[in-house]
C-alpha cells in the first residue's frame, strides 16, 4: 500500500517535468521563428535598398537613432523609413530594425 502513493507521485513528477520541457521547447521555437522572420525581413531590406540614394543618405541619422535608442530622429532617417515602407509594404520591421538594416548597407 505504501508503494502506490510513491509510484503515483513519481508519475505525476514525470508528467510535470515533461509538460514543462514541452512548453519550454514550444516557447523557444516560437521565439526563434519570430527572430528568424525579423532577421529575414531586415536582410531583404538590406539587399533591395543597397544602392538607393535616399536610404544611403540616412546612414548618419540611422547611427544616431540606434546609438540613442530611438531618441534622436533625423529628417533623412524619417524620409528613408517612409521610402522603405512605401517601396516594401510587406516588411514588418519596427524603426529600430530598419535603422539597423540601413547601417548594415
Automatic annotation (TrEMBL):
The keyword Signal belongs to this UniProt entry's keyword annotation: yes
InterPro entries attached to this UniProt entry: CHP02448 (IPR012661)
Keywords linked to the UniProt accession: Signal
Signal sequence, renumbered to the chain: 1-21
Protein name as annotated: DUF2388 domain-containing protein
